[in-house]
Design goal:
single chain, alpha/beta, four-stranded parallel beta sheet, two-stranded antiparallel ribbon, 5 helices, 8 strands, 28% helix, globular, binds iron/sulfur cluster
Length: 158
């Protein structure tokens, strides 16, 4: 088997985004790795399509019960987000992988920048819940925004 790499399933073309679409990056098909696709929000029991959701605090606080994730209907979906992130992390850890390619800006998968919780299309510094969990479990996470960095990093993955 090839090198295993965790990936947000929507980046491989799975229609699991909140709006029922995907965020496929076709260049990923040319990279010689064994993808382990996960969608933390579907895994947490949120169906597709689903209302968009934003984090109301940083990932660390949310995971420690001090913050929440709500959807655009005002419903608290924190437990679904945490459950899905934990199960998806487990799928990755079971394979022994050390690298993840994650969809930018998502409240689950985003790295470095996420929406600020106001549902006004405004970004702030921070990581999604799943991305944060991966990083504290020593999985190197690369944002889908940076295809050059993805190619460079995956060329070195053993
Ligand atoms: S960004 Fe993550 S949670 Fe959102 S659809 Fe893609 S894989 Fe699922």
């Amino acid at each position: 088997m090839g090198k295993k790499v965790l990936i947000s399933a929507c980046l491989l073309g799975k229609n699991c985004r909140y709006n029922g679409g995907h965020s496929q990056i076709t260049e990923l098909n040319e990279i010689d790795v064994e993808w382990i696709p996960v969608c933390p929000e579907e895994t947490g029991g949120l169906g597709t399509p689903r209302p968009s959701a934003e984090m109301q605090d940083n990932a660390e606080n949310i995971l420690n019960g001090k913050g929440k994730v709500v959807n655009n209907k005002g419903i608290n979906v924190t437990s679904e987000f945490i459950r899905g992130a934990e199960k998806s992390l487990q799928s990755g850890l079971e394979t022994g992988l050390k690298t993840a390619i994650l969809k930018s800006k998502s409240p689950s998968c985003g790295i470095g920048k996420i929406y600020d919780g106001s549902f006004t299309n405004t970004l702030k510094t921070g990581d999604g819940i799943f991305a944060h969990l991966c990083q504290i479990n020593e999985i190197t996470c690369i944002s889908s925004d940076n295809i050059n960095q993805i190619k460079k990093t995956l060329a070195k993955v053993k």
